[in-house]
Every structure is written in structure tokens, then in C-alpha cells.
Amino acid sequence: MLSKHIVDLQTGFVFFLLTLVCEITLGSHTCGTEERILTGKYLQDSNFGHVKGVSLFRCAAECLSYSICRSFNFNNVTRLCSLNFEDNERRPELITDDLFNVYSNIKGWPQLISGPCKEKECGTHEKCTVTRLGTPTCENSGLYGRTYTSQFIVSTNKLTWNESVEECSETYETLAIVNTASRYEQATRAVEGKGTKDFVWLGASDRKTEGTWTWVDGQPMGTDRWARHDNQPNNFNEQDCLAYKVKNNQSNRWYDNSCSNKHYFMCEKYVLLK
Ligand SMILES: [Ca+2]
Ligand SMILES: [Ca+2]
């Protein structure tokens, strides 16, 4: 049972450090990280990346640096840190017993431990790293398409754009971000598979600045698939949300539409590559 004691010792040390960090930065008893660390638990089936030979504290910092990281497992014997795109609140069924691991939801860990990255917002598949000059930068994590990929799922119900954003982030990951040619093809297959000619919400809008379209992860739209044959985008009566629509067999199928309309919507879900 020696390793159990090592687990407790190390976890105890992390609590001590966190308490210190919390007291200095936030005032005591606001961090609540103790409740987040589950000793002897492991979250399976959503490990998108690993870091070897680090501390528990460093593992939490690694998780904070990835936009998609929701939780992590840390093996106290091998010091293997595995990063997860799911967590125990959304997927309690993925938690298993594992004597040598601790599991933690990333929520509640102070952003402070990610250093200069604490104020940097990176894109969905990016990672925040710090340059030698101490500047935080976002870079491609290199893990998308290598360890995990996306599935697009068209809903069976109709909601407003805002409600769709919420529904997707509660159940899956996000309202679909269709930011490359291959993802556009994937979105096309999803809508054609459903066989609908109604609008289907996608995860972009120009609500912040009229005419400047951004995806829900804050990144600029980049690709252009507007249904120009139908004079889109026309901002008719202030249309600020992006919808996909099959019409006249045209291949460009993006329409701006009124965000308060209720349409089908396309969610994006992450899946591990085997
Ligand atoms: Ca608009
Ligand atoms: Ca329009």
C-alpha cells in the first residue's frame, strides 16, 4: 500500500500549494479544488493527449493550456498525465476505479497556474504556449486528426441559435465549427444524410460586428460558402446567425438567418481515433 501513501502525500502537497495560491490570489475557501480531485478514480474513453513525467500540479497546468481539456487523470506511480475532452459531470458513466490514479475536473483550478496563458483565449484545437520572452501564444495543438476527430450530428428538434449553442455544449461539444473544406464536406454529408431542406444552424455569427463572421470559438470564419446565387448573406431584417440549407443542388449553402428563428442545428462531438 506504499503507493497509496505516495498518492496521499502528493495530493496533500498539491492541496497545500493550492490553498496558498487561493489565499494569495482569491481569498481563502474560494478555490474548492479539493472537491475536484478524486483519489483512486480514472476517466476513460476521452484521453486526447498525454504528458509523461510531470507533477500533478503541472498536469493541471497542461490541461488548462488546451482549449478542449475538461479534466485529467494523473498516475502517481508512472507520473503519466492524461488529458480528457470529457469530464465527470457531463459523463459520470466514464469514471472507473483505478488505485494508482487521481482524477480531477479542470473547473475550479485557478487559471493563475497556467502563467501568462491565463488571459489568453485560444481556438478550439489550439494550445497556449509561452515564448522565451514570456509572451503567451496560441498554436495548433497537433492532436486534432491524430488522436481525436469530430463527428457532426444534426438535431431532431428545432431551437433558436442561442438555444442551439447551449444544447450542443451541454450534450456534445459545441455548435458545429465548419472551418475547413473537409469539414464542409462532412457537414454536407450530415445534412444530406438527414434528408432535410430546412435551415440547419451552424456555429458562426456576425452579432458582434455586422459583416464580420466568427465561429463560436472566437476564430474568424475564413472559408466562404455563401449561397451567392441566392444573394447571401443579405442581412435581411438583421440576420446575424449562420445556417446551412440545401437548395437547387447548389454546392454553396450558407445563409445568414435571424437568430431568433427556430431551426434544426448541427452539433459537433469529439471522438477518439482508434
Ligand atoms: Ca448580419
Ligand atoms: Ca439571409
Individual helix count? 5
Mean pLDDT: 90
The tally of strands reads 14
Question: How many structural units, i.e. domains?
Answer: 2
Instruction: Estimate the helix proportion, in percent.
Output: 10-25%
Strand-residue fraction? 25-35%
Give the end-to-end Cα distance, rounded to a whole number of Å. Answer: 34 Å
- Low-confidence sequence ranges: none
The structure class reads alpha+beta
CATH top level assignment of the largest domain: Alpha Beta
Overall body shape? elongated
Report the biggest beta sheet as strand number plus sense, adding barrel if it closes.
7 strands, mixed
CATH architecture of the largest domain: 3-Layer(bba) Sandwich
Q: If you consult CATH, what is the topology of the largest domain?
A: Hepatocyte Growth Factor
Instruction: Using the CA coordinates, give the radius of gyration.
Output: 21 Å
> So, the CATH homologous superfamily of the largest domain?
Hepatocyte Growth Factor
- What order do the helices and strands follow? HHEEHEEEEEEHEHEEEEE
Hetero compounds: calcium ion
